[in-house]
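Researcher: Here's the sequence for the chain we discussed earlier.
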Amino acid sequence: MSCHRPEDAGRSSTSTGCSCHFPPSGVPRPATGRVGWLCTYTPEELLLAAGMQGVRLSGDFANEDRAKACYSSTICPYLRAALGAALGEACGPLAGVVVANACDGLRRLADVWAHYVPDTFVYLLDVPRSSDEAAVRYFAGALQGLRRYLEEYGGRAISDDALWEAIALQNGVRRALVALAECRRQGAFREPARAFYEIVWRSVTEPREAFARWLEGELAGDRFASRHLVGRRPNTSADGPRVVLSGNILTPLDYPVLDLLEESGAYVAADDLCTGERHFRQEVEEGKDGDPLAALARRYLGRTPCSRMANAAERADSLLETCREAEAGGVVYVSQKFCDAFLYDFPYFKARLAADGLRVMLLELDASQGSLGQARTRLQAFLEML
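Model: Thanks. This is the structure I predict for it:
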């Protein structure tokens, strides 16, 4: 696996699926340690160990026309919104972006970003579709390529000790988020549904150590007082049907859908979203062996899979278990429009869930509020059936 030096700008390497683009030679690199990412298979720990702040990109549609001019309007609206934000400099200064090679939309985004977003690097990280030991070894090799790239770009070595420290920090963030998710399942999360996802979004955009301290302090106080439940669920503002969200991504642009759910009387008890519990549920096992990259590869490939992975049955089993633990009566399957992998999976998941007595509703998202009226009517009708 190889990467280019700054003087090699304009060429790219596709060896082992890796493609890297540096800013043009002679152009000053941005005085920022912020690196954007978009897919939950991106190893945040490597960025932390490199002294950089990983920032999950959201987006806006103020520059949608510019984004559509260079990125198809029939590809994931989330990726298009992120590109629009970068073109309009709405996402703030970035040193570069790490793009996981997880779907065709992401691959095309890497190409477009390298061409149209100036003075930033682009790294395309290959991700296997299985989780066996051969895949773990392959992904560990891909992570080693990213490690070398970040070392060359930042001008500093990334030691194994630095990686283990970053792993420990990120595991602490995950444990705090899991505790918050358990509060939600028990009904102790008394705030609007969007507040939960706003907190999760902060965990992937703010400095991790400061965020972990803040959330641990909130959990220790009375804001999420699950310790007072003593085996009973408190009264909440949503005593109606308990639902689980499944699917791919909810970004801040999509949070009005959460408001609609609550306005319709639902309580969001759990999820298995890429921007929710599936992102933080499993930790990296510390100290199992001396290779932090192998530990990272094992965690990222071995956790609950998303639809781009090969084991759909495993994900369906996990979703069923989540619904049972959350005492949910139905699943709202949210998918960004044009996301082939998740939309192809929906009929299979619907059949599996229906066989277990669960009702399922598909809700496609396009990061705009143009179809909220129709979504409200459909959600109300769905909840009446629960």
